[in-house]
Amino acid sequence: MKLLILTQKVDKNDAILGFFYDWLRVFAAHCEKVTVICLYKGEYDLPSNVKVLSLGKERIDSRQQTVDSRNILQRFFYIIRFYRYIINERCNYSNVFVHMNPEYVVLGGLFWKLLNKKIALWYTHKAVNFKLRLAEKFTDIIFTASKESFRLPSKKVKVVGHGIDYQKLKIKNLELYNAPGVKIDSKFKIQNSKFTLITVGRISSSKDIKTLIKAVERIKNVKFDVIGGPLDEEDKKYAKELKQIVKEKNLESKINFVGPIPNKDIISYYQDADLFIHASQTGSLDKVVLEAMACGLPVVSCNDAIKNDLLRKYPDLIYRKGDYQALAKRIEEIINISKEKRQELGKELRNIIKNNHSLEKLITTICKNYL
Prior knowledge:
By secondary structure, the chain is of the alpha/beta class. It has helices at residues 19-30, 57-63, 68-88, 102-114, 130-138, 175-178, 209-217, 233-248, 267-272, 287-294, 304-310, 324-336, 339-356, 359-368; strands at residues 2-10, 33-41, 50-54, 95-99, 118-122, 141-144, 157-159, 195-200, 222-227, 255-259, 275-278, 299-301. It has two domains: 2-165 and 358-368, Glycogen Phosphorylase B (Rossmann fold, 3-Layer(aba) Sandwich); 175-356, Rossmann fold (3-Layer(aba) Sandwich), CATH 3.40.50.2000. It is built from 14 helices and twelve strands.
């Protein structure tokens, strides 16, 4: 199969979209040829059957253009390049896969339909807007991670789980789980003087980090690492507000804003933590929670998709949105169980990812749906 993939960024060092680099690597193993059109091209080292074409945002970012009129003009050039690429490369792909950007389907859908190209859209977000409604008309298949991750009613939707590279996201000292007859003991994790909590992802109001801070404030002898950064001006305001709250409450020795970490380097943070806490209110199946689980890290979440899909058999890992007191109680309950039980829980959560959300399984399923 020859596949055209459209995505926002190809950059293995990116803190948020770096995971898609692994998707491209696995797509390359399943396809004769992969042509990628991205808005931004960073560092990558992909197989020889992958061709990456950029719309050119990295050149604008390097010059730090901020004038609105210039941005409008640049978007025009993006569109020109987009049409040039999909027309010039038309003989190099038979199918189209659009990742999280329905506007590409809106722009290219009619052209692809005229050429009899099969179009699939991957979309995991609760937002339903005009672009998505229009894109739905052109697509042949819509892939999503959970029923909560796609809110527009459509017969084209296929719920296929997320794509997590669990073979890369390993439990620390995984051989302890694999060796027959070996009992897991307290040497499994690095000993920390404080119980370590982490959360990972974009710093924005939709992630409700305030609830996490309020919960952590109530618990003694813990440290909390907030990994991630803001993306836009609204996010930056929110991040500044969070840091001010931490300062006013004298929590700076307990709560650490680590900043964004490249996706390829995040594994050690998952492995060295004791618990992942999550308050996202996006409603979709949040990938960072699955990554934590793949590393054998227990998670506590209020997210609808997480509790309905991943944690429905683990009520002690769920709390009500915004209820920081309930979250604090859940955290304390996990602190108080033995390390061995916590490790066994982590193993069970990892198996959920392995069985239902593996990257290899996801890409295989997507490719089969084009046949």
